[in-house]
Amino acid sequence: MQELLRTNDPTLIALVTALLEGEDIDCFVLDVHMSVLEGSIGVLPRRIMVARSGLHMARRMLEDHGIEWSPDP
């Protein structure tokens, strides 16, 4: 799995996962339960992961919908 997006905006996470599912791109959100450690203040970002085979199409989908993402360093 490759990281597609890292954010602490829950609405963006919901939007991106819905868009990915609509394009039949499997995704998985990591760090969902970190709120237990951070006290539910939303400081730690969550990561949306996709299969390496769908990464290019997922990034293209983000661009088509005007969602900014940072390429891997």
UniProtKB/TrEMBL annotation:
It holds the Pfam family DUF2007. Gene3D superfamilies: UreE, C-terminal domain. Coiled coil: none annotated. Residues 1-64 form the DUF2007 domain. This is DUF2007 domain-containing protein. It comes from Paroceanicella profunda.
